[in-house]
């Protein structure tokens, strides 16, 4: 299974490009899932049909989903609330549990919801040859791609600190000649479980053979500047940027050759500005797409 | 028979005395480490829950995933608030009489 992320500045055509790639891969006989994790979905407009969380077979071998991030935020908070209630049950006497509702406005919850949605998609659709993600705006995309690594940094520090505490507890237990070893620490167990989980995601994202990022840009300075930022940040995270797609190229501005020096180690694809809108399955299928290095 | 019983009781008393002495010495030896452990656990709880009081902290989702297994640590942290203004008193209590 290969995972492709299409990202870029708003309005450059990342949804169209992800749809084009999905359609062409499916027509080549591959099993493809195209998933929009952008809160402002475009795929239903591109394919001209209603889409939802439920996969819809658009063409032979091609299924499309529009993930509702609010559903994932709600699911996550509901699960957490239940776990909190089980442990801190006495809080219900003071109706304090009502305050958990405000957690949905906590910073970081949205990117965690995107990560959960991505994780779920990867687990659920393992039979696919390609899973293509049409990503949210740049800031959210970079945050969710960085989340596994940031989480791992914290978790490893917390694990090391917790181990120091347990080592000292072990010394005390030995002085008191308590026969039993210090009991298993639930906090360290939970931290280790989370480390395993985030290492699995991080390994997958940084595996060049499985995961690739495709940056879509137009030939204007703002789009180029944001694409350079994305390229730098994603590369720093250890995730491979495979292609840079110069979309709607009309011959003006920098030539594709000039752009190549900004994105070293990637392949630059140029898509000419077409006449009319690139929507509907028929138009997408007949669009001449340059062979991608996927 | 009575003498034998009295000797047995006396020996048992002496054994208890030394066992108690040993326990007191062990408690004195581990008192400082216990205090250190408690403070380390407080710092750990502060690190995890720091976002609630404006400190640098892990992403919120990590805090939320760790809190359900940290009931004891959180209670301990709340309890330490009552002695936070008298750290010197707490320290001297731990060190024992001069």
Give the biggest sheet of chain A: 8 strands, mixed
Task: Give the termini separation of chain A.
Answer: 11 Å
Radius of gyration of chain B: 22 Å
SSE series of chain B:
HHHH
- Classified in CATH, the superfamily of one domain in chain A is P-loop containing nucleotide triphosphate hydrolases
Q: What is the ordering of alpha helices and beta strands of chain A?
A: EHEHEEHHEHHEHEHEH
> What is the strand tally of chain B?
0
Secondary-structure class of chain B: mainly alpha
Query: How big a fraction of the residues of chain A is strand?
Result: 15-25%
Instruction: Output the strand order for the largest sheet of chain A.
Output: 3-4-2-5-1-6-7-8
Task: Give a quick account of the main beta sheet of chain B: strands, pairing sense, barrel closure.
Answer: none
As for the CATH topology of one domain in chain A, it is Rossmann fold
Q: Count the helices of chain B. How many?
A: 4
Helix percentage of chain A:
40-55%
The gross shape of chain B turns out to be elongated
How would you describe this protein?
The complex is a heterodimer of chains A (294) and B (98). Helices cover 47% and strands 16% of the residues of chain A. Chain A is of the alpha/beta class. Chain A has a domain at 2-76 and 101-145 and 208-286: Rossmann fold (3-Layer(aba) Sandwich), CATH 3.40.50.300. The relative contact order of chain A is 0.16. The mean pLDDT of chain A is 87. Chain B is an all-alpha fold. Chain B is elongated and about 75 Å long. Chain B has one domain (2-95). The A-B interface holds A 76, 80, 83-84, 86-88, 103, 106-109, 112, 147, 150-151, 154-155, 158, 161-162, 164-165, 168-169, 171-172, 175-176, 186-187, 189-191, 194 and B 26, 29-30, 33-34, 36-37, 40-41, 43-44, 47-48, 51, 58-62, 64-71, 73.
């Amino acid at each position: 299974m290969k995972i492709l992320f299409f990202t870029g500045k708003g309005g450059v055509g990342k949804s169209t490009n992800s749809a084009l790639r999905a359609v062409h891969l499916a027509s080549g006989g591959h099993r493809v899932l195209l998933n929009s994790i952008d809160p402002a979905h475009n795929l239903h407009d591109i394919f001209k049909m209603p889409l939802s969380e439920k996969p819809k077979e658009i063409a032979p071998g091609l299924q499309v989903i529009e993930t509702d991030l609010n559903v994932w935020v709600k699911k996550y908070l509901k699960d957490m609330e239940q776990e909190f209630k089980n442990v801190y049950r006495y809080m219900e006497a003071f109706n304090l549990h009502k305050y958990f509702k405000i957690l949905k406005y906590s910073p970081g919850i949205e990117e965690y919801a995107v990560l959960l949605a991505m994780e779920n998609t990867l687990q659920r659709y393992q039979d696919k040859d390609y899973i293509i993600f049409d990503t949210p705006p740049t800031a959210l995309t970079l945050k969710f791609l960085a989340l596994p690594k940031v989480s791992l940094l914290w978790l490893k520090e917390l694990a090391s600190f917790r181990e120091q505490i347990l080592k000292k507890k072990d010394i005390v237990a030995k002085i008191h000649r308590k026969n039993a070893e210090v009991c298993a620490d639930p906090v360290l167990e939970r931290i280790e479980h989370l480390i395993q989980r985030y290492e699995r995601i991080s390994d997958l994202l940084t595996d060049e053979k499985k995961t690739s990022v495709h940056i879509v840009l137009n030939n204007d300075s703002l789009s180029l500047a944001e694409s350079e930022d994305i390229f730098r940040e994603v590369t720093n995270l250890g995730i491979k940027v495979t292609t840079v797609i110069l979309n709607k190229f009309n011959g003006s501005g920098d030539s594709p050759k000039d752009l190549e020096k900004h994105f070293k180690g990637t392949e630059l694809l140029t898509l000419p500005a077409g006449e009319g809108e690139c929507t509907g399955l028929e138009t997408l299928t007949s669009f001449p797409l340059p062979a991608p290095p996927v | 028979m009575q003498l034998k019983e009295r000797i047995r009781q006396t020996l048992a008393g002496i054994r208890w005395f030394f066992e108690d002495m040993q326990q007191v010495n062990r408690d004195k030896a581990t008192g400082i480490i216990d205090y250190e452990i408690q403070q380390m656990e407080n710092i750990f709880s502060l690190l995890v829950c720091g976002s609630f009081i404006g400190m640098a902290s892990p992403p919120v989702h990590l805090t939320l995933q760790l809190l359900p297994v940290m009931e004891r640590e959180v209670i301990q942290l709340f309890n330490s608030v009552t002695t936070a203004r008298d750290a010197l008193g707490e320290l001297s209590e731990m060190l024992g009489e001069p």
